[in-house]
Design a protein that fits this description.
alpha/beta, eight-stranded mixed sheet, 8 strands, 24% strand
């Protein structure tokens, strides 16, 4: 089963979220506008699942700040490993002749992201109790989608029934993102809209959706 969850970004803009349910792939994805606290919401859902005996794997995206200024984003695995996802240009340093991928002022460190994130997909569901696990993909966004290997891994994981997926996707802005729209348009997708005002109330709905997915995979 695939469950998508919320959207949340910028503090100024209303934040929306998307949740989708796939009766065959058990997963949860959030679509977000930044600043709404979507990663915190995912983490709270995972904490509740762990306390009920559910295993959690995957990764989060976290802001990196220096002197109160946001300088980029890191990918952080559930087990605490950390790697660069992006940095602002004056912090990123030289790309050493590699093709440069940028989103606004941020330079995406694609090798760092792939080295940390892709092995998680290869290992998902490989250990015992795969049906009682939640795999976190926070997020499926513009920076991550520069990686074709990541796109393939997301699709393959969604098409498997080895675990439940909790992920995040961005709200529509500007040019549509192919994989995001593909997920959003699935017939088996349920959409939740999340804002700063309702995010705490949605936590129990998200947990309930995940628990429902877990029942179908166990």
């Amino acid at each position: 089963m695939y469950v998508g969850a919320f959207e949340g970004q910028a503090a100024v803009n209303p934040v929306q979220s998307v949740s989708f349910v796939n009766p065959e792939t058990q997963s949860v994805d959030e679509s977000f506008d930044s600043g709404v606290g979507k990663t915190t919401l995912v983490q709270k859902a995972c904490e509740a699942l762990v306390s009920s005996g559910v295993g959690v794997e995957g990764f989060y995206t976290e802001e990196v700040r220096e002197g109160g200024r946001r300088v980029g984003f890191d990918v952080v695995t559930v087990t605490g490993e950390r790697g660069h996802l992006s940095r602002i240009r004056d912090v990123a340093g030289s790309s050493h002749g590699r093709r440069e991928y940028t989103v606004g002022q941020y330079v995406v460190d694609l090798p760092s992201f792939e080295n940390l994130a892709l092995p998680l997909f290869r290992n998902v569901g490989s250990a015992d109790g795969g049906g009682r696990k939640v795999f976190v993909i926070d997020e499926i966004g513009k920076m991550e989608l520069f990686s074709q290997s990541f796109i393939r891994s997301v699709r393959q994981t969604l098409d498997s029934s080895s675990c439940t997926i909790l992920g995040t996707i961005p709200i529509p802005k500007g040019k549509p993102l192919g994989l995001v729209e593909e997920l959003r348009g699935r017939r088996d997708v349920k959409v939740f809209t999340v804002s700063k005002e309702n995010r705490n109330n949605l936590l129990q709905d998200i947990i309930a959706a995940l628990q429902n997915c877990l029942k179908q995979t166990s």
